[in-house]
Amino acid sequence: MPELDSGATAWILTSAALVLLMTPGLALFYGGMTRSKSVLNMMMMSFGAIGLVSLLWVFYGYSIAFSGDLGGVTGDLAALGLRGMLESGTEGGLPDLLFAGFQLMFAVITVALISGAIADRARFGPWLLFAGLWATLVYFPVAHWVWGGGWIGELGVLDFAGGTAVHINAGAAALALALVLGRRVGWPKDKFKPHNLPMMLLGAALLWFGWFGFNAGSAGAADGAAAVSLINTQVAAAAAVLGWIVVERLRDGRPTTLGAASGAIAGLVGITPACAFLEPLGAIALGAITGAVCALAVGLKYTFKYDDSLDVVAVHMVGGIIGSLLIGFLAVEVLAGAGNDGLFYGGGIELLGLQAVGVVAVLVYSFVVAYVIGFAIEKTIGFRTSTDAEVEGIDNAEHAESAYEFSSTGGGGAFAAAGIAATAAPKSEPTEPVGEKVAG
């Protein structure tokens, strides 16, 4: 049994916590981009994913993804309930349970990513049902294909931290659900502006911070691969910020905070599969390309008339595709392994072809299964909320709460639950009529 590596163990413990922080960061990022009357429902989808997927991972998810191999398609289910892992020792210097815990955080955020495509119109209960079924039928098996000894990894496809298993996987499912649920009331004629850009920026900052655990933590040790991943993650995100806002400046006349944050996330998505395989100059090129292309890809939903509320397809699916394919051009053999030089570094086309196989396989599988699950839920118990609930505010309809209390008396929420009445404001003579409509 390998001896415990205390340094690697400390780093992966930290990385697991960083990756978990990304899901509340995602809730803030998505929540800030929605309307004020649907922000709680949006954030609850992320927190619901934390609760549900964490338990499924222990029950059987880890076992499907990482215990043994059955025909390159699924695990052998030898670790159901994580039984036997308390005494199973270490692998590569890490406790087996720590590896399981680190990978759990990936499963959680992958499911949560999907929710941004269906903001403003998805019922919470059916969302949890979809999340559980999709995680079981798609994420857990695909994680095995890519990282658990399955056919994609054995084929030689390179995906260091989740370009296929996380981002293309979630982006394809997001596209499927956007098609199943249909367009929001009033889209695309009405403008669905973000209700809280500072909240959105805070969420993006937390995602950027947590992404160092996501990418550098995937090295499995505090080593050179982690160092390369860290610097490449930073410079790719930085270049993507500039790439996105340059497109905005040329197309719309002004760069925006939403564009800068979206560009950062696009760059982080693009570098995820490639972070340990590129030199920093290659990472900068990848980030700039990803930021610019994803900014342009946002327009696809208007061309093809699908309502992807928060541009999950443009950022995660397109960004994941770009990052995965650019490995075939920008990989450096000394980092990516023997025979894995990219085209720009003297390699042949074989690596690019393998990357394309991985991209297409995950994209098609996730889209088809997500569409079937979403369609079945919509036709049975109903996935989309009613038109009245959508117009009046899905937060109140689904959760009996409002993110912001605008009444003159206040004292809602915990005060009301405790039976504490708020002190009424002193009456005064009205001067001019005051409109009741609030932003969003």
TrEMBL record:
Matches recorded under PROSITE patterns: AMMONIUM_TRANSP
NCBIfam families (alphabetical): amt
Source organism per UniProt: Micromonospora qiuiae
Signal peptide: none
Occurrences of domain Ammonium transporter AmtB-like (ranges): 10-404
Compartments in which it is found: Cell membrane; Membrane
Keywords: Ammonia transport, Membrane, Transmembrane, Transmembrane helix, Transport
Claim: Ligase is one of the keywords in the record: no
Record membrane topology: Multi-pass membrane protein
TM region(s), chain numbering: 12-32, 39-60, 97-119, 126-147, 167-185, 197-214, 226-246, 258-277, 283-300, 312-332, 352-377
Gene symbol of the encoding locus: amtB
Pfam families listed in its UniProt record: Ammonium_transp
Keyword match Protease: no
Record-given protein name: Ammonium transporter
PANTHER family xrefs: AMMONIUM TRANSPORTER MEP2
InterPro entries associated with the record: Ammonium/urea_transptr, Ammonium_transpt, Ammonium_transpt_CS, NH4_transpt_AmtB-like_dom
Family: Belongs to the ammonia transporter channel (TC 1.A.11.2) family.
